Amino acid sequence: MHEDYNVFVKRVHHKYGIDLSLYKQKQMMRRTRSFYERYGFLSYEDFFMLGLTVDGEMEKRFIDRITINVSEFYRNRERWMDLRRLVLPELVAQNEALTIWSAACSTGEEAYTLRTLFSDQPKRDIKIIATDIDELVLLKAKRATYSSKSLRELLPHEVTEYFNNEGDNYTVKDRYRKSVTFSKHDLLNDRYMKGVHLITCRNVLIYFTEEAKDRILKRFVSSLTDGGFLFVGSTEQIFSPERYGLETYGSFIYRKTPLHEQ
After folding, report:
1. Whose CA is closest to 101, among 213, 238, 202, 234?
2. What is the pTM (predicted TM-score) of this model?
């Protein structure tokens, strides 16, 4: 089975540019195997040659599956409140204009959550750049329409403030959408932007190997301005953050040490 999987990994990398070897093997094998078994395939070989190669819709569903898209507004709300309390006042006090990167943004809930955190700063120049490897989820993010399930961490007055409600759908109001832009980006292969004041990348690093995680963290730090912040998920504590040029600033919040160079 492992040899069959290894050949499959090479083929996926060649065809789609997605390197599955940089994801934790047991988790990714379980994820991919359950996907192809659902469609009646018996091996990775058959799945690739008789499924992905000939069925465009299956390709899209497969890429959506392996890129792990799970998100909601204010997921782990207490951590977002920590970000609001500890980080936002400093960012606003020290910068007239802010560049924020929502990395691996999935369907956009995290990016729009970031924008709502600044809802009491209407005149601040805030640019939120949200990226993901999966073009299908980016399309949904741009539409900015969600079900009530995605809003379950929000308080009633926040739902009213941030969304227009039409039946079972909730669409982010224009004033929170206009400063958020979405684009495709592969954390493992593409160039990273510079001059970012805050990066959020939550509940994604846990799926990568230690080697890949190390590479991503180093590149995040190089993207941050001196004193910039990195906000990760609640199962993604960075041990020995000083080796990346980071210092712990709060729960799952890290600050780039001033004058640190990668």
Report:
1. 202
2. 0.79
Residue of 141, 142, 132, 236 whose CA lies nearest to 184: 132
Nearest to 144 by CA among 157, 156, 128: 128
Structural domain boundaries of the chain?
2-66, 77-256
Which strand (E) or helix (H) includes residue 214?
Answer: helix 210-223
For 180-213, letters b (16+ CB in 10 Å) and e give bebeebebeeeebeeebbbbbbbbbbebbeeebb
Nearest to 136 by CA among 189, 72, 182, 192: 182
Averaged pLDDT for residues 208-236? 93
Q: How far is residue 146's CA from residue 33's CA, in Å, rounded to a whole number?
A: 29
pLDDT of residue 146: 95
The residues, ordered by sequence, that sit 6+ positions from 227 with a Cβ below 8 Å of its Cβ are 94, 255, 256, 258
Share of the chain above pLDDT 70, in %: 95
Measured from the Cβ of residue 250, the count of other Cβ atoms closer than 10 Å reads: 15
pLDDT at residue 18, as a whole number: 78
- Paired with 146 in beta bridges are 170
What fold, for 77-256? Rossmann fold (3.40.50)
Residue 110 has phi, psi (to 5 degrees) of: -65, -45
